[in-house]
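Batch manifest, entry 17 of 40.
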Amino acid sequence: MTALTRTQATLVVLALAVPMLVPGLPPLVDLPDHVGRYAVAAADPASPLRQFYAYRWALVGNLGVDLIVAALGFLPVELATKLVVIAIPMLTAAALLWLAHEIHGRIPATALFALPFIYTQPLLFGFVNFALGMALAIGALALWLRLSRATKRVRLGVFIVVAPTLWITHVFAWGVAGLLIAGAEFVRQRPQVALVPAVTRTGIALLAFAPSLLLIALAVIIAASMNPAVNWLNVRLKFPRALGAALILFVVLGGIVGLLGALVPAVVAQLTALIAAVP
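Output type: structure tokens
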């Protein structure tokens, strides 16, 4: 099967920027609201904006583009936003092609079929932190596969930084990356050991995400201190619900893992026999 060269892959990634180049501000539904927020954050204390709006930074799992635009404070807000938004589909495409390379050892031409789905509802509706987070989540999976050839200490050290970065960008990026990596690690472990050891090894590998839980706990504590009227730490109210959700998740994931453990070997055997039968 034809594979893309690095030059072709680079040109494809650059082509993903074209739809965003002409408009002064990319025509994404929710983006003007984001730009307004960035403008208030960047406004001088003497600005008329500050007479009507206040801005207070907080540690939340939805800060990806906000932080980048703030770091580009030497540029006008609209230009900084446009540059970041243009970069999002390019980053997503680069992450997808990198992931294809890590899986196949090359970039198959069929990987191009995934790229049109970058310009779908989340991006077009202007959910820019989410879209950026998904690009980083896919890149995190590709990085995890690359680091599977390195030592566990190296991978742990890298993802102690990567996991919190994903959460700060968007909490869904952190969760999606965890699920993707869990699935990839389970598939990698399953041919080597039985079902239960494969699940155990996958859980141990995911301890690389554990330090980021401290960041999430810190965010909850800060939110509680910033808004005392909201009882964020009402254990009596939230613990039963959290426990119930955890039990449901455990049952669902257990069922999925059990089903995969039962079906995957049979499916692989059938596909292998089918491929072997093809002249």
